[in-house]
């Protein structure tokens, strides 16, 4: 290879096949602006979520929706149903729809709608960003706040203005890059415990994200930049179980609550009914939701939120299937819509019971 202004070195990029420029965040935001009404919903719901997570609002936060979005039409169909249910239970539950576009894989696999919107290895990321943003705006138009996992450090620039709650997953909770990212995010964020079940890494994530950081990033014009953040004090821990088994039981919740309280965070955690807390079985997930509802109803303290993986149809299908079943997950198994309604109503009844038990 000849050294030129375009190729100033022979020793870098030996394994990079290509670069192609993305649209800038400002271009995408200009094409699809949030607008005043949606902005008001995002602002209001972020405050409400922060209040629930800090114990200033006695409702339960329920983050519920598909494991991943692969079909925006089915996700919006689901959102319409959830918006009606959210209204029904709004005295007791604060419902946020899981609208997950970025999937962290254990090894390899489809990495979500932003990375590969056609699900076929064509990796049209600009289209993925536009499709994801359009869906977020459509869900907000139904009056539902949205929650996302943030995985790529630059993707929030394109969508985060429309997001009311964020998550850092079990595979990245210990990553400095993700903690720095959270320190600049404008919404409350949950850190999952590690895949091995270790909760302290999530507590450490909350502490790190609460601090000021200076790091590499990109600005709204897509320029490589030095980013300085103020820190995000609205962070919390999510118990999702681990390789040693579940951690949704009363003892594990109490132990996690003690760990967060020890570092000065509100003594509350979110419990994920799925992942290692259900052994990725949607049938077991429904049982975990019922157990949590019963415990909250009996007056158990310490749980401020519940996460549920739910879609229109039960279970999961391979993303490579020739004919995809409408409304069925292509990643982790989800509970179906009827089971979701039952579970959400049980949690609402649990919150009412818990208030009486006080
Ligand atoms: O929530 C989704 C999955 O649990 C996570 O992305 C890991 O998936 P994988 O083990 O199938 O790669
Ligand atoms: C990937 C997820 O979970 P975890 O990080 O707990 O595996 C998820 O919630 O989609």
UniProtKB/TrEMBL annotation:
Q: What GO terms describe the biological role, i.e. biological process, of this protein?
A: amino acid biosynthetic process; aromatic amino acid family biosynthetic process
GO annotation, cellular component aspect: cytoplasm
Q: Name one Pfam family in it.
A: DAHP_synth_1
Q: Describe the reaction catalysed, as an equation.
A: D-erythrose 4-phosphate + phosphoenolpyruvate + H2O = 7-phospho-2-dehydro-3-deoxy-D-arabino-heptonate + phosphate
Q: What does the UniProt keyword field contain?
A: Amino-acid biosynthesis, Aromatic amino acid biosynthesis, Transferase
Molecular-function annotations in GO = 3-deoxy-7-phosphoheptulonate synthase activity
Pathway assigned in UniProt: Metabolic intermediate biosynthesis; chorismate biosynthesis; chorismate from D-erythrose 4-phosphate and phosphoenolpyruvate: step 1/7
Q: Which intervals hold domain DAHP synthetase I/KDSA?
A: 50-342
Kindly report, in one word, the top-level EC class recorded for this enzyme.
transferase
* Enzyme Commission number(s): 2.5.1.54
**Top-level taxon in the UniProt lineage:** Bacteria
> What function does this protein fulfil?
Stereospecific condensation of phosphoenolpyruvate (PEP) and D-erythrose-4-phosphate (E4P) giving rise to 3-deoxy-D-arabino-heptulosonate-7-phosphate (DAHP).
Stored NCBIfam families? aroFGH, PRK12755.1
Per the record, the similarity remark reads: Belongs to the class-I DAHP synthase family.
Q: What is this protein called?
A: Phospho-2-dehydro-3-deoxyheptonate aldolase
Organism encoding this protein: Dietzia psychralcaliphila
């Amino acid at each position: 290879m000849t050294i030129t202004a375009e190729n100033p070195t022979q020793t870098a990029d030996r394994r990079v096949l290509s670069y192609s420029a993305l649209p800038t965040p400002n271009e995408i935001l200009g094409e699809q602006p949030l607008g005043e009404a949606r902005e008001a919903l995002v602002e209001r719901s972020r405050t409400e979520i922060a209040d629930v997570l800090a114990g200033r609002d006695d409702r339960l936060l329920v983050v519920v929706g598909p494991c991943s979005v692969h079909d925006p039409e089915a996700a919006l169909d689901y959102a319409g149903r959830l918006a009606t249910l959210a209204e029904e239970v709004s005295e007791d539950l604060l419902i946020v729809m899981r609208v997950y576009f970025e999937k962290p894989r254990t090894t390899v696999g489809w990495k979500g709608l932003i990375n590969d919107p056609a699900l076929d290895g064509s990796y049209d990321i600009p289209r993925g960003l536009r499709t994801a943003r359009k869906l977020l705006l459509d869900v907000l138009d139904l009056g539902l706040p949205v929650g996302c996992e943030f995985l790529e450090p630059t993707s929030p620039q394109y969508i985060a203005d429309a997001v009311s709650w964020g998550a850092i997953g079990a595979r990245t909770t210990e990553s400095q890059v993700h903690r720095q990212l959270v320190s600049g995010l404008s919404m409350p964020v949950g850190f999952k415990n590690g895949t091995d079940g270790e909760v302290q890494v999530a507590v450490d994530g909350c502490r790190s994200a609460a601090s000021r950081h200076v790091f590499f990033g990109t600005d709204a014009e897509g320029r490589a930049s030095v980013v300085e953040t103020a820190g995000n004090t609205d962070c919390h821990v999510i118990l999702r179980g681990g390789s040693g088994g579940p951690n949704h039981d009363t003892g594990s919740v109490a132990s996690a609550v003690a760990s967060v309280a020890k570092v000065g965070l509100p003594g509350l955690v979110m419990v994920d009914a799925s992942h290692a807390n259900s052994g990725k079985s949607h049938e077991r997930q429904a049982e975990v939701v019922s157990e949590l509802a019963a415990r909250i109803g009996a007056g158990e303290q310490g749980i401020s939120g519940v996460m549920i993986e739910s879609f229109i149809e039960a279970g999961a299908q391979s993303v490579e299937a020739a004919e995809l079943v409408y409304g069925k997950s292509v990643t982790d198994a989800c509970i179906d819509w009827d089971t979701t309604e039952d579970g959400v109503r049980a949690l609402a009844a649990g919150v009412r019971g818990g208030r009486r038990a006080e």
